[in-house]
What does this fold into?
Amino acid sequence: MAGVDLAEFAIASPSTREEDMRWMERAVALARASVGLASPNPQVGCVLVRDGVLIGEGAHVYELRDHAEIVALKQAGDAARGATAYVTLEPCSHHGRTGPCADALIAAGIARCVVATADPNPQVSGRGLARLQAAGIETLVGVLQESAREMNDAFAFSIQHGRPFCTLKAALSVEGHLAPPPAERKTSAPHWLTGPESRTEVQRMRHGSDALITGIGTVLADDPALTDRTGRPRRRPLLRVVLDSELRIPLSSQLVRSAQGDVLVVCGDQARGGAGLEAAGVEVLRVRSATGRLDLAAVLGELARRQILSVLVEAGSHVNGAFLAEGLIQKAVLFYSETELGEGAVPFAEGGVSPFLLEQRMRRVQRTLFGTDACVTGYLDDPWEA
It folds into this structure.
């Protein structure tokens, strides 16, 4: 991130006082609860405390306009004077849909501001902090920074790179394969490798994503619905995107039959047809293609134009290989079952990339269990670095 030199501000250390940690944990929890409701803005929580007593708190919900700081200040009223503000993201210093939150905090007379992380926007990073400090407000940066950043990876990446943050998710056999040999499968029927705990986690991932991308091969083989079935509220429906260069998707597929303005089929610029899909409520987007391969950068550019910040790639070997070959995946989540599929099984990705080789490229790797399934999560790119 560029912007103001953050070395000018006090940085949190391992000795950060327990009270600051405790109140920031509350602010982080408020921000986390806004998943699905804040995009295309970041998830932000704010807590106002005076003399050890909570006097106001809030989180940003896009449709309600007010940023988290404003929600908390409205609750606190005049009691905000002399208070400490705990904010998960640097208070903004510019005019957007609302006025600068840094100015609102200054006008309210707060005495201190504790911030989890600076704004990732290189045009504004550090400027809100500088405005607070110039007004005589004590500032502290970096309290629970990792927790605050993780929920806003997509915002940080997209605002710096102009395209969505892409997470590749795959359910795999113990050998790292996607599915049994095609001859052993029934068409239009999913083959479950992982257990219910893993599938619940995938639903949580879908809820936290703006869009999901799959390929026509997966649609023809599995006939998936690819919906967010968490039942939790979201501001806009999960956009289900199918990469289908020749428009082969059946009108009888679950995706087409369930379309309510939330299914986008991307085809090549020379593909024929599409009227039946559009009549069924499916949007057809034509992009550049060469030798049957869609221009993935153009696809992501179109999603960015629609203010899509986060994309979950749930696809087969062809799409996985293409996204990885073009360096378009920033994070991978790999679920390994105990099932063995043997020779001839469908590989993880075309191009010779195995999930085990991918793991070697990952940073900040986490290993967890969902039931009997092992899950490996890691980053291929740091979304907070320009």
